[in-house]
């Protein structure tokens, strides 16, 4: 460790050295609160603003901007950041009074935000949410940053990471308990109270009023919405009779999602549910697999068709719970049914059973994987490799089928072409209704084990090719970044540049830390590659996602501890190790990892993914330890992470594997910009 790292600078005049809580516990609490608040905002805003179901990392980008600004703001003011709880209260009220939901009276395309909605348009509500998220997170970040000058550089970073892990653990625990947002709001209010601890009457008012508004508003939402909070959605339901038929309508995040009704009525009212059984020539149903079992209607239909055993796979525990409790046929209580709450692709990769019929039953997630730009929960279920996995689980004479409201004819043809590529022959394609392109795609293990009503005409010249695991973007027709994303991200970067200049002063203040900025950009891409890779290897479930994010923080913490306690190689050597780790990650394909047994797959995947993450953070820790201005250096790195969040969308064009190349080029750029003194040390 350098002499500069061992020297602890005197606290600046604005450092809250008189705070009732000691520096270290205060830093842990502030860091935990910062990450908890970020996760809660992503989760809650997405449940009320439908556009955020397709811009999940929009709030994440605003959070990164706010956290970076919070660090850059340290030393420029002595006032407590009461602006944070006040802005949070205003944001909660705006979203509750002006939610954005799907207009149920019209048909719409539920991707790329091309949908008919009630509420403010995206060009109005999304900038409001982005700016509000930045301001809200700037407050806790400023409190974290004020602790940094009071400690050794790496010691402060260590406690920051411990706090971040605590925040992840707290939010994960509340997700497991299905805690409603009023609990999240109460945690936030308590954290504000502990960290700000107002000593004046004005301060107490500035803190108490917005805190009460947040908790009260979220309590009203919790009591009036009658919602179940799953780890993915705000789930609301309504039980009623349609002409004497008991039906349960289920909505997720304000979007009509499922209907639970008796199997006989569903078969009578919608033909698509019967077609998979009619197209299966063998008519044998000893074992059936249903992916996207939801509230149970597809399971009830399979049982009514004579299935002797059904494996029902559903990713959302609350949707399954609703079906288990309220479905009129009680399919989940049938001894012939085995329920597995997991991701459908993960089940296919880990299961050893064979089936007479495999159904992908309307597996729309309507939400994105947190922190993974455009990866939806079901994205890996519709790739060519997923269809091949389904084919490999069919018994001789078995049949695969999928049905949905595809809404675009090219989407039906793309999926049919994907099935054709996986099975080696044309599938049956039945367009049940032109309204919403309601279609059923069925393929037997051989052409003789399927019975088509008419031959599918085949893909046209305008049909996009099948999606693969590297670019699993089913709803992206062309290999490009949609214009709405380009415009939005461009505006985000412009606003961020102006905000940094306004809050932090001249850009020259951050110029010495240009390499740390690029380290932040590259690391976010590396983290995205890890999140998406583990989602493919182990499932897109919230548990896997939380474990991966926690694992990344543990790897970062390990890098910091190694740097603090041992003499590590100089930075040029560590950059070499980092680039070597990126090359290794590039050379080890996910397809090979998927072929390994699960325990061995986990060991190899963790080793390959976390080697470059560990090396990158040893580089950062050594460079950060020797920086002259710790808070500015850390702020520059966080702003780089925000830019990296924008560059995530390159995966839409080049795929996730190629993000490793982009990250490698950025790390090379950071090495070139490394100051001579740091390189020599």
Structure description:
There is one protein chain. With 681 residues, this protein is of the alpha/beta class. The chain has 3 domains: 226 residues, Growth Hormone, Chain: A (Up-down Bundle); 170 residues, Rossmann fold; 195 residues, Growth Hormone, Chain: A (Up-down Bundle), CATH 1.20.1250. Helix content is 55%, strand content 11%. Strand 5 and strand 6 form a beta hairpin. The longest helix is centred in the C-terminal third of the chain and has 28 residues. The protein is globular, with a radius of gyration of 26 Å. It starts with a helix and ends with a helix.
Low-confidence stretches: 1-16, 103-115
CATH architecture of the largest domain: Up-down Bundle
CATH fold title of the largest domain: Growth Hormone, Chain: A
Secondary structure tally: strands: 13
Task: Give the overall pLDDT as a whole number.
Answer: 87
Q: Strand share of the residues? A: 5-15%
GO molecular function: methyltransferase activity; spermidine synthase activity
Keywords: Membrane, Methyltransferase, Transferase, Transmembrane, Transmembrane helix
InterPro entries: SAM-dependent_MTases_sf (IPR029063), Spermi_synthase (IPR001045)
GO biological process, one term: spermidine biosynthetic process
